[in-house]
Amino acid sequence: MAATTSTASSNILTTKKNLSSLSLTSTNKLPTFSSLYSSSRRQRFIVLSASLNSKPTVLVAEKLGEAGINLLKDFANVDCSYNLSPDELCTKISLCDALIVRSGTKVSREVFESSGGRLKVVGRAGVGIDNVDLAAATEHGCLVVNAPTANTIAAAEHGIALLAAMARNVAQADASLKAGKWLRNKYVGVSLVGKTLAVMGFGKVGSEVARRAKGLGMHVIAHDPYAPADRARAVGVELVSFDEAIATADFISLHMPLTPATAKILNDETFAKMKKGVRIVNVARGGVIDEDALVKALDAGIVAQAALDVFTVEPPPQDSKLVQHERVTVTPHLGASTIEAQEGVAIEIAEAVVGALKGELASTAVNAPMVPAEVLTELKPYVVLAEKLGRLAVQLVSGGSGVKDVKVTYASSRAPDDLDTRVLRAMITKGLIEPISSVFVNLVNADFSAKQRGLRLSEERIHLDGSPESPLDSIQVQIANVESKFASAISETGEIKVEGRVKDGIPHLIKVGSFEVDVSLEGSIILCRQVDQPGMIGRVGSVLGEQNVNVSFMSVGRIAPRKQAVMAIGVDEQPSKETLKMIGDIPAIEEFVFLKL
């Protein structure tokens, strides 16, 4: 068999020529959706270009800055209709080519169905897209774009404002004085100079907060699995592990997205690891903090103060113990609420919507264009396999260095021209990035998302002898220059390595590091390295059975009899921490890790 290596278009070190077909940078004119597919089958695909005979119509359903409205009017007919009921929106939408909303309008499946196929673009004026049904948008051939950058400075400034106000008890002292009291001794604050600030999430907002905190004389550290070390060094920030960040910080500023991996990431367990008297600022998402646990930590003196702009439920209940706590400063989600930010968002979303209506691919797209039905049908199980291998691989990474170098190897009997790996590469990128990011990765924005995070992804194809009936024999994902929380996932050459193939339409994991296994990638997986001895499968299975965790598959790969082995266990439910501890306490178990798919 012969191997040919090429660098994927998501590798930011490639030449611009290699990126021309799917370049997603905002500075270049991008190909129209229709040009990506053959004209003979164009009727099956998304075509976003506006009619040549008339202007498209854009419905603006929530207030948008005047600069954005003017931009839209230069290209389209603009209908500004605010406070529409769901029924009114569904009635209007069949006459519109594009819809722009903020967070208050729900763009449901019914909206897309009511559009009768005319709606081509939904623009979200802001970052979050929880109010847009992405699956329905994609099914109906509608592109969804957002405005992720215009709020950056406003959010960073608000974070710094809360940091300083909290440290000097500004809100409490203001309320006290207005109540007729003069309590100078009660509201003695703390200085910021020389204190350690941990920035949790070193993206756009986090890095801007770090810059400003450095200007205040603070020592800044950060945790972010994807932050490039050189970018952090340029700001004078040290990247550290999650545990080190929360254990050494005097102040913690949260700038991470709300994902399954970050939900309630600050909880009883993590508060217990913090320095007593720590102060916490959150201008990210409310759900990243367990609010009940924060109240307990405040009452116990573990957390001295908190300053919050976001909450799990917004608005929070009037009787919220957290909101009413004496040592908590709160604002009603004002992070993006500056005149400049609102105008910036309006311009950014207007430009994205106009570009999409012209048929250009937007760098801020959050869902994918449709692909040929026959290609999707053939690649569907491999697309699932690709994403799950990415998710597995990134969850095996530990430490604060971040994921930068990824190599994907496809083994196939088909000629290179007969195997288009763009969708597979995009799904691997999706699996690598989405577990710890709020970005929705797909064929449209995969390269752009990878480039933003300094992720270099290269591809190698191994040609196999045999029938080309099946598009792929296997996919292997390797992550170089990182440490692993499961040492057995490290291959002989030092990379984290996972490999999978499709069997009877179901994706399977067939290799972890140097150990061969065979487990269906359904549900989630527990990996255990053990001493190979009789009874191990029964002991681990008994623990899971006693804790009502259903096992779907179990496979053991070993180096040699009575030596080391790796057990891969597919489970339908997420085991409790107590259950995992019981597995780890089995004497012959040397290490284990739970991986959520």
TrEMBL record:
SMART domains in the record: AdoHcyase_NAD
Reactions accelerated catalytically: (2R)-3-phosphoglycerate + NAD(+) = 3-phosphooxypyruvate + NADH + H(+)
Protein name in the entry: D-3-phosphoglycerate dehydrogenase
PANTHER family: D-3-PHOSPHOGLYCERATE DEHYDROGENASE 3, CHLOROPLASTIC, FORMATE DEHYDROGENASE 1
Domain of life of the organism encoding this protein: Eukaryota
Annotated organism of origin: Salix suchowensis
UniProt KW Oxidoreductase keyword: yes
Family, as annotated: Belongs to the D-isomer specific 2-hydroxyacid dehydrogenase family.
Class of this enzyme: oxidoreductase
Enzyme Commission numbers on file: 1.1.1.95
Pfam families tied to this protein: 2-Hacid_dh, 2-Hacid_dh_C, ACT, PGDH_inter
Domain (ACT) ranges: 525-597
UniProtKB keywords: Amino-acid biosynthesis, NAD, Oxidoreductase, Serine biosynthesis
InterPro entries attached to this UniProt entry: ACT-like_dom_sf (IPR045865), ACT_dom (IPR002912), Ado_hCys_hydrolase_NAD-bd (IPR015878), ASB_dom_sf (IPR029009), D-isomer_2_OHA_DH_cat_dom (IPR006139), D-isomer_DH_CS (IPR029753), D-isomer_DH_CS1 (IPR029752), D-isomer_DH_NAD-bd (IPR006140)
Pathway field: Amino-acid biosynthesis; L-serine biosynthesis; L-serine from 3-phospho-D-glycerate: step 1/3
